[in-house]
Specification:
six-stranded mixed β-sheet, single chain, seven-stranded mixed β-sheet
Length: 501
């Protein structure tokens, strides 16, 4: 039978001489791959020939067997879509997997096979690459490499199978017209691995906005205001596309839709999706098309459009929670259910306070200085200095330069200390101007700079830190601070610790 292949042999200018020729030897060399993943193609068996004289190689027979076991199939089409032959890195012929099973190729397994172990209970295939027309000259050392294209999905049990290969006969003709067969007798084996699956690390970005007071209108919707940034990193070297994920919006108001009109998502400045929350705050972002390259990171920014305060009480507090990726796929065909990290532990944005008028607080610096005991019987003390901006919006507000208007805690060894354990002083500067009754007026859209200094008493011993809780102020030029703005999130308003003795 004249076996044929769907070869891809290129015609060359090489012509066969008229002298005798032969193959002196064949030696194994390293193949491109030792194992192949699902969906991968690559060379797994290579050898080098030593040519003497001029020869034309027309055919190569390679035998392949799978180690038979109860946990693996011996059907080639459960593993491969095709086999191919490369010479010096160029593909010259291929065989479809269906051709592995033709009677012209399959051996009778009643006797010992050609492959190294000679087992009689293993299924063995002959891969015949024919009509090659490969012409070589005296002294050439061409590298032949046999490769396979693995199916995109191989049964889990079959992934444990090993395939043994042996190159046997090469049919050749020399310049005198003499035909010969050279026995290569080189062997190798390879295994299969499960394809790589994308791994996601989804976290709150270190650049995510700090919680603050957001100025909103009374009846109109706000502009888009960024309140959460999400870093999504691929960690297993596989490209992935995220289409859907879920978040939750939370507000002080029971009906989230009273406070939030819409949440809009951006990647690199481009809008990728949006959704309006349900009454309970559920958000589903669909058809996002967020492409993440292998081992790359993208940052998703969530911006919120807030309703006016006519629909909710002044001081409503808002935050977003990232929940899970609900639709994604990687380049190997795996979906979000296959990927680790697609359902991370929920994490929240900072908390933002909504007001049409009020004060916005922004911490700018914190320092901690230890006054170390200098003589026997002396004790350590600590001085904590907080500097923060206070911006009025929607109206003018008033404040006395009195540390009593700044609520803070001294925390020693994790316990809030008695008020007598520290003393504090307050300085107001910046755009604050003198008022009539109150010490200072902060005009609308103006920013005052407040500096609070807290000193510990000599009796304080242990790990000590200070946390600012809130700022009291007034809507009228009087001596009563009836309004309160909270310092959130608390971690941003908490100093480092000093060890005091």
């Amino acid at each position: 039978t004249d076996d044929t292949t769907d070869d891809t042999t290129d015609d060359t200018s090489s012509t066969l001489g008229d002298g005798a020729g032969s193959i002196n030897s064949a030696d194994s060399v390293s193949a491109d791959e030792s194992n192949l993943d699902e969906g991968q193609e690559g060379g797994v068996f290579a050898f080098e020939l030593d040519i003497e004289g001029d020869v034309e190689i027309d055919r190569l027979d390679v035998f392949a067997e799978v180690d038979n076991s109860a946990t693996s199939s011996d059907n080639a089409d459960d593993y491969f879509s095709r086999a191919f032959l490369m010479v010096d890195g160029e593909e010259v012929a291929e065989l479809d997997v269906d051709e592995f099973d033709d009677d012209d190729y399959a051996l009778d397994n009643s006797g010992a096979g050609h492959v190294a172990d000679g087992a009689t209970d293993d299924t063995e295939y002959r891969l015949r690459f024919s009509d090659l027309g490969l012409v070589f000259s005296d002294g050439d050392t061409p590298e032949f490499q046999v490769g396979f294209e693995i199916l995109g999905s191989v049964d889990t049990a079959d992934l444990g199978a090993d395939w043994n290969l042996e190159a046997e006969d090469i049919r050749l003709v020399d310049g005198t017209g003499f035909s010969d067969t050279f026995d290569v007798s080189e062997t190798d084996s390879f295994g299969l691995n499960a394809e790589e699956v994308a791994e996601l690390d989804i976290t709150k970005s270190s650049d995510s906005p700090d919680g603050t007071t957001v100025e909103v209108d009374t009846n109109d919707t706000s502009s888009e205001i960024a309140i959460l940034m999400i870093d999504i990193e691929e960690q297993n070297g596989v490209d992935v596309t995220i289409d859907d994920f879920t978040m939750t919006a939370s507000t002080t108001n029971v009906d989230v839709t009273n406070s939030i009109d819409e949440v809009v998502l951006y990647v690199d400045g481009d809008e990728v999706g949006s959704d309006s929350p349900t009454n309970a705050g559920a958000l589903l972002f669909e058809n996002l098309g967020i492409d993440i390259g292998a081992d790359d990171t993208v940052t998703v920014t969530a911006k919120v459009v807030f309703n006016g305060t006519d629909d909710y009480a002044e001081g409503d507090e808002v935050f977003l929670t990232f929940n899970a990726v609900t639709d994604a796929r990687d380049d190997n065909g795996n979906d979000e259910g296959d990927m680790t990290g697609s359902n991370p532990t929920d994490f929240d944005s900072d908390t933002f306070t909504l007001r049409s008028e009020g004060l916005g607080l922004d911490i700018t610096s914190m320092t901690e200085v230890e006054d170390v005991a200098s003589y026997s019987g002396d004790t350590d003390t600590g001085t904590y200095t907080f500097k923060f901006d206070v911006t009025a919006f929607g109206s003018n507000f008033y404040m006395d330069e009195d540390a009593a208007n700044i609520s803070y805690d001294l925390i020693v060894d994790g316990v809030i200390a008695a008020s007598a354990s520290s003393t504090a002083s307050l300085d107001i500067a910046g755009d604050a101007v003198a008022a009539g009754v109150a010490d200072f007026k902060i005009g609308s859209s103006r920013t005052a700079i407040l500096t609070l200094t807290v000193e510990t008493a000599a009796s304080v011993s242990g790990s000590a830190k200070v946390r600012i809780n809130s700022v009291a102020y007034s809507a009228a030029d009087d001596a009563t601070e009836e309004l309160t703005e909270y310092a959130v999130p608390a971690i941003d308003w908490t100093s480092a610790s000093l060890i005091l003795n």
